[in-house]
Amino acid sequence: MIYFSLQTPSIPTLEETQAVVQEVHQDLQQLKPNAILETIRSWTPGLLSFSYRLLYAAIIIIIGNRIAFYLRRFLKRTFDRMGMDLGLSKFLISLANAIAYAIVIFMALEKIGIPSTSIIALLGSATLAIGLSLQESLGNFAGGILILVMRPFGIHDYIVSEGVEGKVLNIGLVYTTLLTVDNRRITIPNGTLSNAVITNVTAQEKRRIDLTIGISYSSDLKKAKAILERIYREDPQILQDEPITVYVDQLADSSVILGSRGWAATEDYWAARWRIIEKTKLEFDDAGIEIPYNQMDVNIFQKTIDK
Asked: Which domains can be identified in the chain, with CATH numbers?
C-alpha cells in the first residue's frame, strides 16, 4: 500500500515579514542618497563651468558699462570743443553708446555659450527688412546727418535752394524747416536739400550792394556818377571803410548803364538797398537826369484815294 505525502509550504510569521520589509527599506534608504550624490557629482563640472561663464559675462558687462560711460563723456567733451550742433551731438553720442552696449552684450552672450553669429544674422535680417521699407526716410536721415556734419548753413541763416528761400528755423535729422519773409513755414526733406545747390545768404557778416541804373545819352554822365557816389557816402548803413565804386557798366541801345557798389552789414542789406534805389530816383529827378524807359511811338498816316 502506497502512501503519498503532501508537504505544505510554511507561511512566514508576522515578525519575519516585518524583518524583510525593514531590510528592504534600509537598502532603499542607502541606495537613494547614493544615487542623488552620484547625480550631483556628475553635474558638478558642468555647473561650475556655467557659473564661471556667468561670472565672466557679468564682469564683461560691468567693465563694458564703465567703458561706455567714459566714452560718452569723452565724446561730449570733444563735440563741445568742436562746437557741433546739439542735435547731432546727442545723436552721435546715443549711436556710439548703442554700438558699445551691443558689442558688450555680444561678448557676454558668447562667453555664456550663445553664438553671437546667430544674433547678428537675426539682427541683420531685421535691419534689411526695415531698411527696404524705410528707404526714402533713411535717405532723408542720411541727408540730415550730412547737413549737421558739413554745416552748409545753421539755425537763423537765410538760405535759397531751388526756388525756395527763407530763414532756417530748425534742422532735424529728417526735415529742415524754413520761415519765409511772408511768415510761411516750409518743410524740406533733408535728402533733397543735401543734394541741392544751396545759397547761404547770411553766411558772411557783410554783403555788397550792386545796383545798375540806366540814364539817357543826353543826361550829364559825370553829374549822375557824382550823385550816386554821394548817396552811398551819405547812407548810414553803408560801410564807409569798404570801397565804394561808381562806374559805367555799358553803353546800351537806348541808355548809358551805370553801376554802383557798396558794402553793408548782412542784416542791413535789404533796408540799405531799398533806400538807395528810392533816393537815386528822387535825386535824379531833382537833377534833371532822365531815366529812360521803353516806349513806342505810333504814327497814323491817312491816305486819300482819288476817285
From this structure: 21-121 (1.10.287.1260), 152-200 (2.30.30.60), 206-287 (3.30.70.100)
